[in-house]
Amino acid sequence: MSNSAVATSASPVAATPATVEKKVVQKKASGSGKAKKATATPSHPPTQQMVDASIKNLKERGGSSLLAIKKYITATYKCDAQKLAPFIKKYLKSAVVNGKLIRTKGKGASGSFKLSASAKKDKDPKGKS
After folding, report:
1. Quick one: angle between helices 81-98 and 47-58, nearest 10?
2. For 30-46, how does the pLDDT look when each residue is reduced to its tens digit (9 = 90+)?
3. Which fold does the domain 47-128 belong to in CATH?
4. How far are the Cα atoms of 1, 43, 90 from residue 11, in angstroms, in the given order?
């Protein structure tokens, strides 16, 4: 009788880790399903194209300010400029370094920006062909 008592007490203990493992596996499987969720494609063009178009179409003699660029993007592309603000600032800084834009006033992403002469020349042949 003592052997049967030991056997019955051992079997529930052995069954418990197996059920715990099954639960862990199920949780991992459900978590990986969320990671595979597809992201929606944005309805607007890339930030680079939006900023270049805004500077070109605003045609301000002293250059277009960050605020004017954001307002143009919001009005034209119907997207939230506050959400795109870090991307716009990053592009403005990198474009000045690359020589695509010229900063006429200010420092960093604040200030006014114009398209450089080389950027204007590059855009014309692409538009004609």
Report:
1. 80
2. 555 556 667 777 677 88
3. Arc Repressor Mutant, subunit A (1.10.10)
4. 16, 59, 63
Amino acid at 117: A
Q: Where are the domains of the chain?
A: 1-38, 47-128
Assign 3-state DSSP to the chain and report helix, strand, coil percentages, each to 5.
Answer: 70, 10, 25
The tens digit of pLDDT for each residue in 49-107 reads 999 999 999 988 999 999 999 999 999 988 888 899 999 999 999 999 999 999 999 88
117-128 vs 47-58: helix crossing angle, rounded to 10: 100
Query: How many other CB atoms are there within 10 angstroms of residue 48's CB atom?
Result: 14
Cβ–Cβ under 8 Å, residues 112 and 64: yes
